[in-house]
Design brief:
heterodimer; A: 568 residues; 3-stranded antiparallel beta sheet; 49% helix; 12% strand; B: 289 residues; mainly alpha; MetI-like fold; 72% helix
Chain lengths: 568, 289
């Protein structure tokens, strides 16, 4: 926290300097963008031409590229890149990953190594100091860098990336891409794109102790197909009685993941996804403030029932994750929030605490409330920003060459196989579309107990490179129980359609932030009070709604709808 | 004088209270040490409190066998020792002339130095400067930019000002130059303040992760503090909502504890021996100044 404060204060000071210094740069930037647009036009014309002219153009290039073609530069070339160093598989210079990339493409990286914990802070320092690397991967939120002109509007350049464009067209990513467009109509990062939302790994769920649920006469496998939250509540009561009362649920992530999951089923943005509390209503084609709706009331009433009945403890909303985990590992609690990476961790730990075979974990399909939707609906993941410096230093042709390299490594099937599985024959084999890791190599739930790890010892299966892919790609790396979970999820629940996008300009955004911050802070604290019983949803409801309105919720809704209608 | 009954009761309560405070302060560290010698299973089932459960030293062995940690440790030792020498030297030669009231330009220089206590250039300008000077990714980035602490300069200045002027005059009469007086008369008389400075500077450098985080892009230069930060905060600080699935795996708790113990050990070993200077030095500087 302290670091963030220090950095933000200092950034503020730097911004003042930046305003003075950037005047000229800004103009340059405009020129670049115009160039890019011109380039786009000419390129469109080119695309309309026959294949012959494309072929001719390729002859002049000092590299090969293309859809399903390996990128290869004639001359060895090095690109600078920021690298988010993961503590579990710390960077090694002699990883097979690096040599494999260079062997195929003749490209090597000049890496700026940054510990994952502080990646975002250092990234923003380097970008603001003008020392950014060309390639800036693993970017979740690019908004802060857009107005400064330090990163390229990549949407102007994607037409040079055949694999990227192919994926966009094949899986109809256009609407998803609209969600990251900024007020100038462009987007500033190359996102990871998945064929289906489940692939992004953002599907959070609850994992239950199936052995004990079964013993209590609760068959989750049958129930989950169509259960709602009341069924779930009754099931938990039954289990609670079976184990002789007491708390059976003490959740992790300070309840944020849980509130998000439950909120989504009620169409309420809550927990992690609270955002600005706005929800789209397709019936009236307008936006409303969901936190004062009847759905919200139902949502907090349900949550408070879990606490009141003693099923869940209120520590859920305050405790550290390790505390929640330890309660679960020792068998004190019987269900816990989970995602696709946690499941394996839970198993590893419980094999040590309870012993293998003495427990059974089961990821449940979340109960329904208002809709029949899965939790995740975004098909985009974090992505890659390109520093504007790359255009200045490499020139247009050089930049396009680099983008085509990125296109190959991050977006082609060959690149995806390489960064995930490694080198065929060395680290894995593929038969009839089924990937098989070599028996002496392990990776998140695959080949448990093998002496070498795909990420630690080889650098493959690396989060800096692995974004996006087809369902086949997503499923190929899952352990059997996860595969089975996603199959259930996809067959029992639908994918929620994306909300339409509303893009605000800077001024609007500023005003809205001023409203949003206190408003959502208030909503969050009130939500916890309602849930933990410090406030009563019936008695205090009117006061709560009045307070939200006093915090300008209506003004926020109006701004949203005005902008939305003007952009339709 | 006989102690009154009330005073005796007060003393008993006082002692009990102090023991409680000591235990509370000590417990986290004991817990850490206990964890570092325990098995993973015992830690996760919450069995470890004061004493190690399933005692083993495998964690330490594996950390030491792993080359990286040793490398970071060497860097930390290098930075702490060379940094302390540079800092001490810089602080002393700045504080000494400032302590002489007859040097007229001090009226200009003293506020100049004090100014830096309240106003800084900011992170990014500093970064740009260090980068432009070619210090980034060299060990000098760790040693030079923060070498002299204004606060310590003032502390030392106050101490020097209180040394008897007559000693220096006597030395001057015997034909000693300014530099000779400084090294042969003033410094030997300043051992208490010097040891305090050594402790401050060394412990500051030992635990400094921020400077290397800002200026080092290569892991060969990392000190152990930055490595510790990486393994401890790694899993906590990522955006869990959008983290990819391979991202949330954690480092074993025993490895974290053992690394922390190894890092804290040298400072803990040295502290009792220089602790008296620690308090003394502060008094020497501030009260009389």
């Amino acid at each position: 926290m302290k670091l963030k404060k220090v950095i933000s204060t200092l950034l503020l000071a730097a911004m003042v300097l930046g305003i003075v210094a950037c005047g000229k740069k800004g103009d340059d930037k405009g020129a670049n963008t115009n160039n890019a647009e011109k380039q786009t036009e000419t390129n469109d014309n080119k695309e309309a031409n026959t294949e012959d002219s494309d072929a001719k153009e390729e002859e002049k290039l000092d590299y090969t590229f293309g859809l399903n073609t390996t990128f290869h530069s004639d001359e060895p070339i090095t690109y600078s890149m920021m690298y988010s160093d993961h503590e579990v598989y710390p960077y090694k210079e002699d990883w097979r990953l690096w040599s494999a990339i260079t062997e195929r493409s003749n490209v090597s990286f000049d890496l700026n190594l940054i510990a994952r914990a502080d990646y975002d802070d250092k990234k923003s320092l380097l970008i603001n100091a003008g020392e950014a690397s060309y390639i800036i991967p693993k970017t979740y939120d690019e908004s802060a860098f857009v107005t400064g002109g330090a990163v390229l509007p990549v949407s102007d350049w994607v037409q040079y990336m055949p694999n990227y464009m192919n994926f966009v067209e094949t899986y109809h990513m256009e609407d998803d891409l609209k969600t990251i467009v900024k007020s100038d109509g462009k987007y500033y990062k190359l996102p990871g794109m998945w064929e289906a939302p489940a692939g992004t790994g953002s599907e959070y769920t609850l994992v239950v102790r199936k052995d004990i649920f079964d013993a209590a006469g609760v068959d989750v496998t049958a129930l989950e197909k169509d259960w709602n939250w009341d069924d779930f509540y009754n099931a938990l009561l039954k289990v609670q009685q079976y184990v002789g009362g007491g708390v059976i649920w003490s959740d992790r992530w300070k309840g944020d993941a849980l509130l998000n999951i439950v909120g989504q089923t009620y169409d309420i943005p809550a927990g992690w996804a609270a955002g600005d509390g706005m929800q789209y209503d397709p019936a009236s084609d307008s936006w409303y403030f969901a936190e004062t709706s009847e759905d919200y009331k139902a949502f907090v009433t349900l949550m408070s029932k879990f606490i009141k009945s003693g099923i869940m403890d209120s520590e859920t909303f305050t405790q550290e994750d390790t505390v929640a985990e330890n309660k679960f590992y020792t068998g004190e609690t019987l269900l816990l929030g989970s995602n696709r990476s946690m499941l394996q961790t839970y198993k590893d730990k419980m094999n040590e605490t309870l012993g293998e075979g003495k427990y059974e974990l089961y990821s449940i399909v979340i109960p329904k409330a208002k809709n029949n939707y899965q939790i995740a609906n975004s098909r985009l993941e974090n992505g890659i920003m390109i520093a504007s410096k790359a255009l200045d230093e490499l020139g247009e042709d050089g930049l396009i060459k680099m983008l085509r390299f990125i296109d190959w490594l991050w977006y082609s099937d060959e690149g995806k196989d390489l960064v995930r599985w490694g080198v065929e024959g060395e680290t894995y084999t593929k038969e009839n579309g089924v990937y098989k890791l070599n028996p002496e190599i392990t990776y998140v739930g695959l080949n448990p107990g093998a002496p070498k790890a795909l990420n630690v010892d080889y650098g493959f299966g690396n989060g800096v490179f692995m974004y996006g892919g087809t369902q086949e790609h997503a499923a190929s790396m899952l352990s059997d129980d996860l595969k089975e979970f996603f199959e259930r999820l996809n067959s029992y629940r639908d994918i929620k359609p994306l909300n339409p996008t509303v893009v605000f300009d800077e001024d609007q955004q500023e005003e809205m932030n001023l409203i949003k911050t206190p408003l959502i802070d208030y909503v969050k604290s009130a939500t916890l009070k309602f849930i933990t019983g410090q406030a009563d949803i019936e008695k205090d409801w009117d006061k709560y709604v009045a307070n939200c309105e006093a915090n300008n919720s209506q003004r926020y809704v109006d701004m949203y709808n005005e902008t939305y209608n003007s952009q339709k | 004088m006989k102690e009154s009954r009330g005073y005796k009761i007060f003393k008993v309560f006082n002692t009990i209270l102090m023991i409680i405070v000591v235990l509370l302060t000590l417990y986290p560290f004991l817990y850490l040490v206990a964890q570092s010698f325990s098995s993973e299973a015992a830690i996760y089932s919450g069995k470890v409190t004061f004493f190690p459960v399933d005692f083993n030293i495998d964690t330490y062995k594996s950390i030491i066998r792993q080359g990286d940690f040793i490398g970071y440790y060497k860097n930390t030792i290098l930075y702490a020792i060379s940094g302390t020498i540079i800092s001490l030297f810089g602080t002393a030669i700045l504080a000494y002339p400032l302590s002489k009231p007859y040097l007229r330009l001090n009226k200009f220089f003293t506020p100049f130095v004090i100014f830096t206590m309240y106003f800084g250039g900011g992170l990014i300008p500093n970064f740009v400067l260090v980068n432009a000077l070619g210090l980034r990714n060299t060990i000098w980035a760790m040693l030079i930019p923060g070498a002299i602490s204004t606060y310590f300069v003032l502390l030392m200045k106050a101490f020097f000002a209180n040394l008897p002027q007559e000693l220096e005059e006597a030395a001057a009469i015997d034909g000693m130059g300014t530099f000779g007086i400084f090294t042969k008369i003033v410094l030997p008389l300043s051992k208490p303040i010097m040891s305090t400075m050594v402790l401050f500077y060394a412990s500051g450098l030992w635990g400094n992760w921020f400077t290397p985080f800002i200026y080092f892009d290569k892991k060969e230069l990392w000190p152990v503090a930055l490595y510790l930060r990486q393994i401890i905060y790694g899993a906590q600080s990522t955006n869990e909502l959008s983290a990819g699935f391979e991202e949330t795996a954690g480092i074993a708790a025993s490895v974290k504890s053992a690394s922390m113990v190894l890092m804290a050990l040298p400072i803990i070993c040295v502290y009792p021996f220089i602790q008296k200077y620690f308090v003394q030095g502060m008094m020497l500087g501030s009260v009389k100044g």
